[in-house]
Amino acid sequence: MANKNGIIGLTIVIALISVYYLSFTFASRSFKSKAIAYATDAKGEVDIAKKQRYIDSLWREEVYLGHTLQEVTERELNLGLDLQGGMHVVLEVAPADILKGMAGGNARSSAFQTALKKAAEDKAASNSTFINRFAAAYKEAAPNTSLASLFATSANRGKISSNSSDSDVIKMLNTEVNGSIDRAFQITSARIDKFGVTNPNIQRLPGQNRILVELPGVDNPERVRRLLSGAAKLEFAEVYLTNELGAGLEGLGRYLTQQAEIEKAKKPAAATTAKADTTKKTTGGLAEQLAQKSDSTANDSAAVAAQTAALTSLFVPMPQGLGVYLKDTARAGEILRRPEVRSLFPADLVFMWDRKGTAAGDNQLILPLYFIKKQNGEAAMEGDVIVDATHDYDESGRPEVTMRMNGEGARKWRSLTARSIGRPVAIIIDNLVYTAPTVQGEIPNGNSSITGSFTVEETKDMSNVLKAGKLPAPTHIVEEAVVGSSLGAEAINDGLLSSAVGLLIVLVFMVAYYSKAGWIADIALLINLFFLMGIMASLGAVLTLSGIAGIVLSIGMAVDANVLIYEGIKAEIEEGKPFVQAVRDGFKHSLSAIIDSNVTTLLTGIILYTFGTGLVLGFATTLVLGLLTSLFTAIFITRLLLEYQIKKGKTFNFYTGLTKNWFKDNDFDFVSQRRRFYIISSVIIAIGIGSFIFKGFGLGIDFKGGRSYVVRFESKVDADDLRDKMDETLGSATEVKTFGGQDQVKITTAYLIEETTPDADQRAEAKIMEAVKKINGNPAKIVSSNKVGPTMANDTLWSAIYAVLLALAANFIYILIRFKRVAFSYGAVVSLAHDVVIILAVFSLFNGWLPWSLDIDQAFIGAILTMIGYSMNDTVVIYDRIRDYLADDKSRGQSLPTVINNALNSTLSRTAVTGISVILVLIVLMIFGGAVIRGFTFCMLLGVIVGTYSSLFVAAPIVVDLLQRDQKKEPALAAAETAPTATKKVKA
Hints:
The longest helix has 36 residues, at 4-39. Strand 11 (358-359) and strand 12 form a beta hairpin. Strands 7, 8, 9, 10, 11, 12, 13, 16 and 17 form a 9-stranded antiparallel sheet that branches. Strands 5-6-4-19-24-21-23-22 form an 8-stranded antiparallel sheet. Strands 14-15-18 form a 3-stranded antiparallel sheet. It is 58% helix and 13% strand. It contains 33 helices and 24 strands. It has 988 residues and is of the alpha+beta class. Helix 12 (285-293) packs across helix 13.
């Protein structure tokens, strides 16, 4: 093998990278276990706050290979929400509210209101943007009125004028909407940071006015809904200085001293103090301030020293007030919320944290604490007075922010700045201080600039924050999924069990079929699994339950490359070649089929990754990575292992006594029976179309919108009885299906799906539980929930259609490029369409008859696309063999049906071995994978069976028919067709 040393070196590098990144997962799990052990009391109950304090105390400390616990956690292989519980939310910025704010008083016009209503109603029937829908609707409602007459207000001065064209106004509106989405993203990020979730995932979905939020481990969905929904609250407030709070700080010092003595009395042995309660001592500035301001303890230096030590053990002096090391913020916040501490400070004082921390060396981070002045809980000003805010540069070329206020705001701002000269004014959003610039002088006209040591990015962010108060731009939850921690733990067990059993079956099957060569393939498969997990960890990928399914399936499909290689080597040995030469030629001749078959599956996987979310995205991630690692291990690792055996002078067979003659000298007549199979497929498709028309499909909420809940009862429950209770309580038809067991059901309803009020989800859940409680003597709880709004459902449907069409087009083009005959592309695409229609027919016919979900949802589309990839993989291998046979001199003089029939027979061993391996894996997933992916797995299992059938009995026969038609059009080819045939007789 050429570049053998390079391949060995690359293998070692990948192995070391995998070991390095996977080690962070084990280290992180170890510290989390220690945190739980530290926070567990004698009764076995875990104190969540105590656990968090332990983690906070080490968050910025170097704990493993020079990395802090934060960095270790960020580098671990993260588990998806379905494996650890948590909440998935998709937020949508409300463009209708933005338009109302942009139009000002003009928003009250009847034409505006009519257009706004029509644009909202068209959201489920149109794939265009809200702004474009509104513009078209407004032209219908007011055909002789320009958009500029609506939006050329004083608030939009400098952006458009009364003479601006409709296209310019639409462009400006789209710009404002995009800016609002950016602001919403920043505000959401800050809110999530405040929520304190470990490793949250926050993304702005490309090309959409939506934000994806994933919060692992969250067990309070209602709090998340309140936190994420609604417009941001922007405020301007005065700030207390530390020298104005001497008495309060002294009192806080005394309080902390007393608490320390109480704790010391409880724990006399200082050596037993856990590291979670240790903090870095700070002396200096704050001690001096206390010494200067102290009255009651001026004559007691020991008391002052004790109070100062207690205060500086937790708080750090900073220019604007105090700061707290990030690791101590949970403890500090809890202390400051205590009534006895609050009573030490002025009634109008509110404690607020800065949005971001300040580096303090030694990997530590200090979070500034501000003393904000609010009268009766109200700040001096709110952000609705902001007209505009922009990023700019001052006279010295330094980045600054300029903001402009309306008349009311200018009057309030003048008063606030006049009494705050030389003092900071805090700019607050959602109770986090973004900045607190010092006022240099009274500002009379509402036009201000904020300067300081800012970067360009910081001033851009700040201007966005200030503009958040300009327009009401609330976010609405359009998709939501909640997975309980108990369900996540079960999913982990199901996933690990299915993975282990599936892998074991594949390993045993390979040895049973290929004998010693099977052991080599098994070693390559295990290395493939190790590399896959290591690469996922290095890329920061998230492992989900569907991802585990993708891993197991990719291992099953990785068998295909080894099978192609081994079958090639067997063929070379049968021709009488020496073992060494047979191995070399077997690898060489199988490479083309391996590359072609994996590229087609890879194309489908990339499409899945591009268009998928949730379950589909997790599956696509591991499938794509698994294909890449399996290619490397099959082509290079397997060959290195074989050549190592050859170097030791060993040879071996690629079969066992049982499998030696399997698929040898096959003489099945595929081609002459093609019309019979055309008829069989046509009948199934016709029945399916009839079912489509008269029965339809069970659409999941991904495509129709709605809410779904998985409810678990203590004992067996009658789904029909529960359905009646649901219909009676909700006042509308409800779908209730057994889900994963007789004690568990999945409830699907459209109840309150159109409502966007903050309490709509809570009211819907309460109604569900009201109906559930009518099942007397059988307590139940909701273990997971899901919500998809109408706009999200519409977009998901279109994305699914695009994905399927794109997969068909991509495979058509690739086949055309590789095989240079349109006949091959037509055959492949027709067989894929055949597979899709048959699977749809099964899902329509048997919906409601099988004990698992046959809903058409996004998971189903993911399974369809995966099936397309597998079917294409199978078809390409057959096509590759047909191409070889057509080009082989041995086939010269044979009829086209004979050549193709011989090619099909020669691939039967590969088709059977790969198909059996994948089917075995999928059966394991069906049995052990859990209810969440059972319908998904069933679709793939059905797809493998139908895909194998169509490759042999649809795709290849279509190639025969089309090539024969081409031969009749080309005299030269027609002459070749009339040449004497080989001894094997095959009817055309």
